[in-house]
Amino acid sequence: MITGSDKSDELIAAFQQEISKQEDLLYGVALFFEALTHLHAGNKDTLESYRKQFSNIIQLGNESIRRASAMVQIAKENPDKAALFEHFTFVPCLGHAKPEELVRRAAILVQTYEEIFPGRPRGRPFLPAEILRLMEAAAVRLV
Which ranges in the chain belong to alpha helices (H)? Predict the structure, then answer.
């Protein structure tokens, strides 16, 4: 027999999983920007344009994750509030001209990153050779 508490726990777990997915996508966006930084290293204007665009995408994504995480805390304290998750919509890569394509690229980059650099802390800066290795491996999947 499934109780209301069990249903709330399931909703909370599913929503937390979606938050984790969104965090991965944002990391993939950051990886994509890192690759663009190396690709366009000699062009300051292009880099500045990309920096503004990707900073905005990441900022909006982080804000959405913060709001979602706050909802999880509220639902943990009051399980009846878990039903409100149905009214929360993540809009990944908001502000990008082709958000679906960026989501696809970000997901591939994260998957490739995890395969090439298992256990590596995400905050650790890349050496140029490492980002090149990641991009070459991801490029095969991006086709």
Answer: 4-39, 44-77, 99-116, 128-142
